[in-house]
Amino acid sequence: MSKQYTTEEIRKEVADKDVRFLRLCFTDINGTEKAVEVPTSQLDKVLTNDIRFDGSSIDGFVRLEESDMVLYPDFSTWSVLPWGDEHGGKIGRLICSVHMTDGKPFAGDPRNNLKRVLGEMKEAGFDTFDIGFEMEFHLFKLDENGNWTTEVPDHASYFDMTSDDEGARCRREIVETLEEIGFEVEAAHHEVGDGQQEIDFRFDDALTTADRCQTFKMVARHIARKHGLFATFMAKPVEGQAGNGMHNNMSLFKNKHNVFYDKDGEFHLSNTALYFLNGILEHARAITAIGNPTVNSYKRLIPGFEAPVYIAWAAKNRSPLVRIPSAGEINTRLEMRSADPTANPYLLLAACLTAGLKGIKEQKMPMKPVEENIFEMTEEERAEHGIKPLPTTLHNAIKAFKEDDLIKSALGEHLTHSFIESKELEWSKYSQSVSDWERQRYMNW
Length: 445
Description:
Blueprint: H1 7-16, E1 19-27, E2 33-39, H2 43-47, E3 51-54, E4 68-73, E5 79-84, E6 90-99, H3 110-123, E7 128-141, H4 166-180, E8 185-190, E9 196-201, E10 204-205, H5 206-226, E11 229-232, E12 246-254, E13 257-258, H6 271-282, H7 284-291, E14 310-314, E15 320-323, E16 334-336, H8 345-362, H9 379-385, E17 388-389, H10 394-402, H11 405-432, H12 436-442
Parallel strand pairs: 1-6, 14-15
Antiparallel strand pairs: 1-2, 3-4, 4-6, 5-6, 7-9, 7-10, 7-11, 7-12, 8-9, 12-13, 12-16, 14-17, 15-16
């Protein structure tokens, strides 16, 4: 859990580190980080929750007549970004929750919603929902005008030692920058695809990890540009190559004890873990809409690239949706492998936790683990095992989401309405678009 800074400590750092601007960040329905930036002359207002903004222009927020919103900074997210601006001086960053002018938490703020669901977890008797994300991304070269291209800085593969290319140097600087602002980076390496990278930071409670996910993206994009590169978290940026995943490692704690661990259980999993797992599996199709929220996401969820396609679980097998990594007591966890980094982390964790808590309440055991390669099974064999497919398009995922009252409750009425509206509009625009592939295939028909 992050250090809780006091107002006095923040004031001192602003003075000692020559902070000139304060960046107040929050996240919209699509997982895009937004910010209001103010000069440090407004520090008193920042620290007393008195910075307002117009929420009517933010996706999924409010109508024009309800536009005034207030930012409540979380002091535990304070950091001084280790780069300045063109005028000199540093930028201080705080992640904020969004409130109404009467002080009530805004129901359309994804961060507030996750805090609400974490409150339900505590009412159910648990202390923390610990999360470790495995973040994958691609680096591409910029052109002479500073625009992205699809030209990669390397053609390396999984765990290759690419010490002399710009991608490796960029990845190292991203790691160093993350460590400067308080991350504990556990590993960094080249991934399977050309120009594809992975950086893993230490697991922590759900809210802290969701915040760090947003910070990670900001840092990666900033450092990449310093190297003449573009960092993208798009799920499938290159046809025929591996896509970017965001594996979600989940565990539940009570009285500092990992309740997913049982030394005598199969795979060292407790019944609580198995009940939680069943909740995830039963609601996986609806969760997919949140964990894979773009049209492009479903071009990653196809056979042949290690991304899951079917709803099942296993220990060593990497083809199912959920894997149980070999680990000791503190690290025993469920690894959901379907989500990609375009997901809004606050919504994804709220949905997973809600499904898992429902599973614990119902106390149903999951299907048997599947250790065979699911991709090599026939359709009949998958049916015999009770293995169902994940949605294959955003359209089908949204249909599953709309039919799942539990996962809709994980987002609440406001966010559910905004999410469905946003994704149906995205699908409609995609359905109306005409691609080069279509022209090349059908123009002579």
